[in-house]
Amino acid sequence: MYSIPLPHSFLPTLRKFAIFLVFSLIIIAATATITRAATTSFYVSSQRTSTGNGSLTNPWKSIGDISWTTVTTALASGEVDIYLSSRDSWPDIGTLSIGANGSASGWLKVIGNAYYCTGATGTAVWTAEPTPFSAATNTGNLATTTSTGSGWSIASGRHYIRLEGVWSKNSTWGGINLDANTNPTTNIDHIQIVGCKVTSPVNNHGIWFGYAEAGCHDILISGNYVYGTQLEAIYMGHYSYLTDTITGVIVENNVVVDCGLSGQGDIDIKPGCYGAIVRGNTHYRTSSTTTGTTCGVVVGADACQIYNNKFFAVKGDSSDWGYGIYVNAEGAALGVGKGISSCLIYNNLIYGSYRSGIKILATTSTTGADVTGVKIWNNTIWGNSEYGIVTTASSGRSVAVVELLNNIIGGNTLADLNFASGSSINTADHNLIFRASGTMITYGGSNRTWAQWQALGFDAHGVNADPKFNNTSGGDYSLAANSPAIGLGANLSTDFTTDLYSVLRPTSSSWVAGAITTPQSTVVQAPTAATVSITVF
């Protein structure tokens, strides 16, 4: 390689250019720092004897004292954080409405689990909250509110708002509502409900977006605890709105306990919520609660993903409900169907349901309102009071499961698989389906033994054997070292790579069947309904 020497006369010019470049970069960096959006913080503490101006040292006394005009002005410059004292309780002021809009460059955040205030008069003192609220354990501190109205409310036309760490306790009309007063609700987007708690609303729902229609999208419901609702715990989408425009809905890591006391207490994903993700949730009934009905999750929308959830002891009645996962093409449930062309169900643990583990239904006469493209991978479905998986198709409709792979299904009172007339399976393999006696599988209008099932071309690599769980009476559905489910599964790493507890699955060609790859000692497992204990509010 040849090098070209620079003439000595060029070196001063090169030095000047280098100095110019360094200073230019410094100026650019400084300008970027100067123009970066600012964050303005305001504070609210109910223990104050009189209201202030929302500053750190002189906070507003009540949520009703917040100057939304001041907040809106601050939002023009960037993010606004409104901190509610995490150890305060606010007296009833009716519906608690958020009265300003954030933007993509400046979110509006109302936060009730970060700091707590001391000092009723004089200069307020704020301390970082050492024990913020955890939905998984139902412990920690957060701001508490009661309301004779609709709890917290985010109205139509609101954007870029995060509500975090508030406890809506015993409110009259639901806990946290995305506009319960406008039907239809339009143009609510980029909303986050995170780390909140809703307990025992007198009427209606926990977290509700039940009138959502056009212009509503990007909704995150994450890490909340919902207890003792009369109707659905988490409700996304208007039941009669069938258009695929409510996108970006994520319902994750929530704990739902004893909901649906006078109706249906589900995580409910209505038909307009195209591509919704339901993951990491725990939903159950305790043995002391017998009224009302529920499912783990009800999905009526297309292209949804349901994974890493624990659903157990959900309650139904003789007419319906009581399923861990219920996928249906009923649409508006008024005789007008909504087809589902894709649904992914994987890494779920479903046990002890009043009825079946998974139900898939298409029964309306609406042309095209079929359920197709369903993939069911690596679930553990055990000990449910009816079927493991059941399908229902009528009125000319059909249900098609394209892949049934790597599941553990057994211990159910009735057949472990019940695919009714009008239902089909494309591929079924690497499953452990266990039944010592009685009807194991109903398919194509006939009961099937394991040998007859395999003769149909299904589960050539599957087994009919005891999975050898470690301790089902204690809610432990991990596998003993000699379980036949270990190494039984096909490698699906092109679709997902972890188990129920986000533990990486083996990189070998053979996976563990079922939802759990790790021993019980390494994870926190869901309890049984009999062993669960909660605080009643």
Describe the overall structure.
It is a single chain. By secondary structure, this protein is mainly beta. It has a domain at 287-532. It is 7% helix and 31% strand. It is built from 3 helices and 44 strands. Strand 41 (469-471) and strand 42 (476-479) form a beta hairpin. The longest helix is centred in the first third of the chain and has 25 residues, at 11-35. It starts with 10 loop residues before the first helix and ends in a 26-residue tail after the last strand. The relative contact order is 0.06.
Brief sketch in words of this structure:
By secondary structure, the protein is mainly beta.
Provide the fold topology:
Layout: H1 11-35, E1 38-44, H2 68-75, E2 78-84, E3 89-90, E4 96-97, E5 108-111, E6 115-118, E7 125-128, E8 143-145, E9 152-153, E10 159-164, E11 166-169, E12 176-177, E13 189-194, E14 197-199, E15 207-209, E16 217-222, E17 225-227, E18 234-236, E19 249-252, E20 255-257, E21 267-269, E22 277-279, E23 282-284, E24 297-299, E25 304-307, E26 310-312, E27 325-328, E28 343-346, E29 349-351, E30 358-362, E31 371-377, E32 380-382, E33 389-393, E34 399-405, E35 408-410, E36 417-419, E37 423-429, E38 432-434, E39 441-443, E40 446-448, H3 450-455, E41 469-471, E42 476-479, E43 489-490, E44 510-511
Parallel strand pairs: 1-2, 2-5, 3-8, 4-9, 5-10, 8-11, 9-12, 10-13, 11-14, 12-15, 13-16, 14-17, 15-18, 16-19, 17-20, 18-21, 19-22, 20-23, 21-24, 22-25, 23-26, 24-27, 25-28, 26-29, 27-30, 28-31, 29-32, 30-33, 31-34, 32-35, 33-36, 34-37, 35-38, 36-39
Antiparallel strand pairs: 6-7, 39-40, 41-42, 43-44
